[in-house]
Amino acid sequence: MRAVVCHQGQLSVQDVSAPEPGVGEVLLRVRRAGICGSDLHARLHGDETADVAAAVGYDAFMRSEQSVIMGHEFVGEVVAYGPKCRKKWEPGTAVVSLPMVRHGSDPHLTGLSEHAPGAYADFVIVSEDMTMEVPDNVSLDEAALTEPMAVAYHAVRRGEVGRRDVAVVIGCGPIGLAVILMLKATGVRTVIASDLSAGRRDLARQVGADVVVDPTVDSPWDAVVDKGRYMSRASDLFGAAFDGMRTLRRIPVVPWASVFHLADKLGATPKGPVVFECVGVPGMIEHVMTGAPLRSRIVVVGVCMESDAIRPAMGINKELELRFVFGYDPAEFHDTLQMIAGGDVDVTPLVTATIGLDGVAAAFDALGSAEHHAKVLIDPASEVVTL
Length: 387
What we know:
The protein is an alpha/beta fold. The protein folds into two domains: 1-133 and 346-376, Medium-chain alcohol dehydrogenases, catalytic domain (Quinone Oxidoreductase, Chain A, domain 1, Alpha-Beta Complex); 146-322, 3-Layer(aba) Sandwich (Rossmann fold), CATH 3.40.50. It has twelve helices and 18 strands. Strands 3, 5, 6, 9, 10, 17 and 18 form a seven-stranded mixed β-sheet that branches. It has a six-stranded parallel β-sheet with strand order 13-12-11-14-15-16, sandwiched between helices. It has a three-stranded antiparallel β-sheet with strand order 2-1-4, with no helix packed on it. β14 (274-277), α9 and β15 (297-300) form a beta-alpha-beta unit. α3 packs across α4 and α3 (146-159) packs across α11. The two termini are 24 Å apart. One of its GO terms (molecular function) is oxidoreductase activity. Residues 9-378 form the Enoyl reductase (ER) domain.
């Protein structure tokens, strides 16, 4: 079969042996595969991430000296089953799958490990237990976005955003746009989006952002503070404490300390917005920490595979909450597919191009600076080679 192989940071189309499904595995013909921002980073910085992955107990993440078939966002058609499968789906059935397989007791990340070739190829292997049938009303393009949308859904859930909270999305690439979609699908009323690219700002409006900001012209943080509930200066927070004490101390029958505790429990004390950092390049976490209002919750969704630095004192003085998110669980993956099928999220604006395997290398190079693209899909049967 034909496949796009990554070796030493270079991508090339090669003829390789088609995979054979093992115990509990299913062979799929790839119909669509998405190019993920993580793939762009892993191509160049996989060694650093592999070191981190090994430190947390996964020692099979791709390294530059290996030859890896990438691609972990995909939809395919059932071709054949390995031993001990339930064989629930007829050949030709469209399915999606969590991108992981297991060899013995060892799990491997599909498309990000030498031991689990991915979907930038004619065929890919999946675990039957991790696979789900695509509903009839979901197109191949839509189904291919199940995985990145599940990442966004998990990030929004971990962010614990209330409907009346303001959410700020920094970076409107594919994952930022997916986060906006999921924020609106879960009922968040006010979503502020910020991106340098005019094309991506237009996409942010299409997927439901309420306020869209060009950070070279306006600050997203000014847009947040304009909502009237957030504080950007420590002196404002200190002033609120003085004003509260001045009022409460003049009401002798009121136990002022109990009032403060009750106000905090009810969410009436000052807090910040929920911010989603969706860029994933060095310096962005520090940039967000510096600009965000006091007591913001910052959810780091963008995958930065390089070393970075922050000023802890900035987070301490502003009492910021920093959360990092990774992946999703099988239930979130399933729920995401059902949300797409049910029309709760319209992912069609995210797909901005479809190319064949021969166009993947050029697409990787272009996506580093392409302002008008979001999700680029690969159709192995396509002969298109340019974006």
